């Protein structure tokens, strides 16, 4: 009887099933497919099935046939109908599905060639066929009932059924269990009983067990309670098959999660702990090589693998039991055993919901730190141990501080030993662990206890044991021993962390550490490569202890008689890391040292020791340079600043070199207190721990009190600073002005008003004096000298600068007074005065929008005046504020009138010679656009387009300068605002018409606009306008075609990069196809040339180019220099348009680098003399450059390196010694006329040597031995005999192999000739060489005759 026939008979029972409901089957997991992919069966192909062990299944086996026929049809029908009806009545069934379960499985597995899949498909096909013939629904519930009945019959038979028959049933059950409701699964406990029976089968394969375990876990999670379920899972945790163990561990974890907090959870945790201890004792007590001991050890490893997932989910009591067993395992110091133990503990500590027994955890961490820090430990064990100590101690400290603190020194010692290892990863892990434990496990209470213990005991006769902090600091200090010299950079990080954590209390524990750090400075540089890290570490100690304590430990040693013994290396550290100090320490200690050193410098100067005196003066300045650091969040501003203020006033008047330092200190002091009062937050990310601590001491009340003291000292300081500012000719860096401005912002109003009116009176007097001088100069007496710093013009300029500084402290009425004084100055004929007046006005307009509204008409009238060229930049600032104010008005006509009246002036400024003015004009143009587009202040997109149309309207200008400036303005706005790109495309017809004009200025501007459009436009917009752009670019008037050929080529290359070669080729005119072909060939050639570049250089280039920021560069965009244009698209191309290849980008990078070097070498030789930027004769630098370049061009013209021609125009070539140029004697020429001659007395010896060498290629020619009448050499009187030598070639030292090969080849020819002539007389050697020359010449003549024939 065929097995398939039996299966068909059994499956006919599904005919009476009327309805069933279920959910759709999800895709079969990959894990399931891998499980059923282990054995083969040929049932589907019609051949005999096989056992999974490889044995043939006998179709006539009576036992198998009996088991198959015992599927009771009545029982199956009744079971199935009851299950379905119960499911419907209790409404526990899931949503009905339209997808057939069997059909879905067949679609997934029917194409598989694996025999086990074919066997499974055959069973499902027969089931589906039977259900179809009986017109019954083929749902998961139906398959579940049929499979359970069949499996029950098989398992109820006598004897253990073959596993090859059981496995398909279990697989189907594992698939349909998730589709069946919990009520159906619980029905009569049939499913659970069947699954347990399968799991108890001794002959079950791993694949069958995996499917059965899936069913078992699903039953447990749906509420089925089984008393022996945990034992069953634990048995499979130690199964010999890895897949079964893994699934059993996962099932065990799921059960622990779902049963957390219940009695079953406590029971399961205890069972796991007991099983672990059982196998651990078995392995521990058995003999080493016994079979029982080996089995126990293997089972322990299996349990450890399961504990990595389950330990953190167990109860606290049983976790402690397992951890006690871990200590026994760690004693073995075996990395293979320790790794799962450490992983389990890591998972336990990282799980925030786990119940951690702190005492047991700390004890096992202590053992791990001691056992796995030995030098013979592996790198992996050290690294994992360091990470475990970090997370474990932090978790233990958060749960029980007292227990953790006791073991903390031992853990630190273990991590210290790991740092001493040679394993890089372990060193980094231990360093990170130490830093984390210092920050997490050392709290204020622990530090206070240690500090109080030190204070209350007699340090000289102290007998008590050291505190925990002292032990920890001793461990950290030991990292500075020479034993750890290879990892001192890591040790410095740990020491810095300890300094930062202890803060001011570090002086009690780490004095010796700081002394050791200072001693390291004396180590030689070749043995100590960590100087930078050392300075950072010492700086951390300074920031923690404070400068006063720090300098008591590490002294500057300024009193040393030998200046070389002074610790000058401390000055940069003091300057950078001092924060939160006391101003009184500076006034009492530092100022006293300044006074002493100043007196010492004077004495040395009187003794004639000028160099020593200057060295001492430099030390005095270094001491003064510490003042800004002491003003960085000082703790005693209220008490100490009055005394400091008196010292500063005296130093400002007597020591000019200290004014910058003093002004910087005042600015820091004022600005920090103002920020605290205003509630501004300090960025914590960039701040050091010392800065954070110092800032935390400040609050609004303390800052207000500090400002009150500063306000009381402001009158004296303002008086001194203003007087110095007016008397001094310069203010380097604007330090005086900024200090006056900050003091004015906090000073009382009457103080600032008094100084203001004093300044205005002086300004009035200076103006009257200047008018009188101007009248005298008109009458022929030039009295004023602008080069003199005390001239009336310079004095007026400084007074205006002083007004700018006083503006932060003025009210509205006083600002109006200042404005009244500016009106005549804005019309002054001198550019310097106009510049200062416009600068004051721009500051006023920037600080007060109400002032603009109140004086709008008057300001508009003033802005219509023509200003000096030097004042144009500040006038543009004023125009920006006026136009920005106009953009916010609701009156459309008034806004348009204001903008249209001043916009042409802004646009014309885009053509200014001065770069700062030109850049400011671009900025103003863009800022006005942002003001129109700012929705928060009444702007919108419509106003922006209206503003853009105003700029476009300037294209109607008559002069080329106006037209080109308007085009540049359009390009700048298009670059800034992407919303304007579509409007800019509408200008393309006008742009192409302007390109037809024979004006270089207009053409250059329009090409720049096209470049911006190509770079900023999306690809879709370019494709829409590609044909018109290409055709317009290639239509050129004859006069300008060759001037911008490189620019047009560059634009075409950009179009090809963004749109593709084919798109450009389709719109390219036929007569210009050669240009496109040439571009393609050049690109391919460049890519091939640089394709062989190393990966390092390409990766480095990619990092450099990827970090380039897109920015506007008008010089490159509108430049007419071809070498600049080649790479101009790279600087303003944004991220969306970077479509370049690596090879071409690498080429451009190298080319730009070469150009930059060339430009640097020739920057002093060339002057930009383009027609749109004429030479500014007021600029001394450009004038000198022009004179130098013209002078060098004359030198080049007079150089004898130039080719020589005879009277008939033929080129003269000199053989051997070059003919001397005839000097033309000009009686009218003076000494300067021969300055560039090579024979001039002013020519350097180096140049003469270079010229002499370049004549023949070698430094020595032997020409003094040459005979004028015949060939050969002559003996000269009082000279050596004639000799020959091969001069050294610099190519021998070249890095290029080809050049070295050429040099070696030349040397080898000499060696070969010498060997050939060795042993011959002079006559024989000469005869041989002459014969060879004659032979070669004869061969050449014969060859020539043959050619002539």
From TrEMBL:
Annotated keywords: Signal
Positions with biased composition (Basic and acidic residues): 1208-1233
Acidic residues: compositionally biased ranges: 1122-1134
Annotated region described as Disordered, given as residue ranges: 1087-1109, 1122-1273
Protein name per Swiss-Prot or TrEMBL: Ribosomal RNA-processing protein 12-like conserved domain-containing protein
Record-annotated RRP12 N-terminal HEAT domain positions: 95-356
Sequence ranges of Low complexity compositional bias: 1142-1154
Biased composition (Polar residues): 1234-1245
Similarity section: Belongs to the RRP12 family.
Residues annotated as domain RRP12 HEAT: 421-726
Region forming the signal peptide: 1-20
InterPro entries: ARM-like, ARM-type_fold, HEAT_RRP12, HEAT_RRP12_N
Taxonomic source organism: Brassica carinata (Ethiopian mustard)
